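Practice problem: predict the structure.
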Amino acid sequence: MKPIETIKVLAASVIAVVVMVGIARFSYTPMIPEMVDALGLSKSVVGMLATVNYAGYLTGALLITRISDLGLKVKLYQLGLVVAVVSTVLMGYTTDIWLWFVLRFVSGLSTSAGMLLGAGLLMSWLIKNNQKSELGVFFSGIGLGIVLTAVLAELIKDPFAWDQQWVIYGLVALVLLVPAWLWMPDYRACALPRTGNAAAREERSRFIIILQLAYFCAGVGYVVTATFLVAIAESMPELSGHGWLIWLIAGLSATPACWLWDVFSRRWGQWTALYLAYTLNAVSILMLILNTSMASVMLSAVIYGASFIGIVSMMLAMVGRVFPENPSRPMSRLTFSYGIAQMLAPAVVGYLADVEGNYSHGLWLTLLVMALGVVMLHLARQAKDRETAALSQTG
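Answer:
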């Protein structure tokens, strides 16, 4: 495999993540204050729009667990790229809340294609071509997407109305779609030999079930900050007008963190790396509760960006290596749990914010869930050790 070909494949994968996750999902975060100011949306509606988006993400994850045909996966992955562009542009052409719900749901479907089908297809390609089976570079696209939406948000918020801003995000996604499509390899040639017992072994795996619970907790920790970070910052007098900057900092932190976590994991072990990532994510939430100064919120954004991306990257890469024949399936099972968290948490936190007038109670609840996630992560590690020991004895 020529180095230039590898670079093109990785670049296409990263750009696709920027389109289907960075823009299709994360453009909504800096758009929240814009839409609230222009249209008077309540916190509950803001939270429900995020919830519907993750309902689409959840539905996509569930569907992907049922798909084993590699050709179909490739077609759906390509469709996800197109849907990400269209669903983003159309957000600016209506003020009907129900149509927004539909568009955010469809956008969530495209995000699941980008995250899960994209990660699984790339993992198969890496294994097939004797490359390191790590997804740090792939998930750097999430951080790049955050950076892109943050910078765009600042550039376009004054010259353009909220509806025009949505269209601009969509047009940028359209431009990025071109190299993502042209540099995409023939993933259908990356099918690995099937032994016939991988799916059954996955279904019986207690490790996967407990890991799903741990990942659910991580989903809560991720989505509450992802949805409300800019709004939280803008609600603070000393940070008013700087919400985009906080979001940019989170993205800049997330972008290099993926491969840094890969390096750390290789040196100290994947479980130690995951414990640390979960703990840091909890710390970032605690900082938002205890200190509302600009320096504290900025540092919280740095820690958040670096930690959530590490959890996602390491978790999905780990199950992809454990079940290499069809990596998208266990990745989707984990993301199904992640998606449930992302569907429920924004609605709950948005409701609490409406009732209490601030995000404090919602953040405390999120912190408690993350602490539970560390416990579940440790239980998953113990289950994996037992399953590995049992396999070695039967083998």
